[in-house]
Predict the 3D structure of the following.
Amino acid sequence: MSQDSAAVPPDAARKLAARRRREIVAVLLFSGGPIFESSIPLSVFGIDRQDAGVPRYRLLVCAGEDAPLRTTGGLELSAPYGLEAISRAGTVVVPAWRSITQAPPPAALDALRRAHEEGARIVGLCTGAFVLAAAGLLDGRPATTHWMYAPTLAKRYPSVHVDPRELFVDDGDVLTSAGTAAGIDLCLHIVRTDHGADAANALARRLVVPPRRTASDLGHQRYLDRSLPEEIGADPLAEVVAWALEHLHEQFDVETLAARAYMSRRTFDRRFRSLTGSAPLQWLITQRVLQAQRLLETSDYSVDEVAGRCGFRSPVALRGHFRRQLGASPAAYRAAYRARRPQNGAPEPALRPERAERPERERAALGSERFSAAALGGHGLAAEAADMAKPPSEGYAARLPETPVGRGAGRPVLPGQRERPVG
């Protein structure tokens, strides 16, 4: 959901305090933060590129805690400003947080809340979303972060609607991005919002990066992930989860997992939700889709065979879940992956010998697979195949609006975060 804030209803935006100016950007640094993520807003907003047609911002680099600030490789940073400088900024960026297991300094959280109350735009890059969540600024909002930490963010802050498959999420006055390079995408989006596409494109040329990416542009790189909150490693349910991942090719359900954990279904659901922030059924479906994604990339199995090898009871079930989670039918996904592979220099997947000699037949099968959904009636998969290029609007298994929404009236009611699959 790479959303444009321009469509946010005017009544949803907070009025910017008189002493704050949107072009004044405060970057909040903490000790232990990774230097690459920290450098992104410094490079975008801190260098004068007016000669290239990029409007100038004023940068205030602020220490979020007492010095010295140590970063990657043991380097020490000395920020020229403290938290008091945030009071002048109309844009506040938290580029990263040192550890998702630690609580941010209370003084920094207070400064962020005060800036937000006074109408400042608050931005969290990568793990900086954890700081915004700790300040309560993401409650009831869609947000994203690095895919590896998304399950932990969802579990720790269940009122946040986490979507780990987006490059960035613009919710009007609060914006978040996924990991590392996605921080550049969000900063370019901010320049585009403030000064238009020409300015953002000029800046992208100077940085030698694509001017505008979306999640759908990543094609086969849009991976779901098996990751779970770090805390699961020490929990008795970890053994059940490991068994499930090793036996995805078998047809089993949540009742089977509950029996292996020696729990009733109700108790198992409650324990699994409390541990992962996800319903066990949704988590299991996500893992099966991930396995199907890998088989489509690395094997020559037909879609029907992939469905069977991933524990789906029918190819129809695979197609429906695959399209909802990855935005394309299995056959279309495989075709797009193979079309992109030579550009990325990836090796040819290992084909089964008995099928490697039938390229024409396989291509015909792929073509019929794409359009055979028309015979599936009420499942609506024909329309899904036709609009495969449309990026998915589901975040963490909950539908988010395809157009950006503000915080005020008009925001649709979204399901609780604990209903969303870990992926």
In short: The longest strand covers residues 21-29. Residues 3-12, 219-225, 343-423 have pLDDT under 50 and may be disordered.
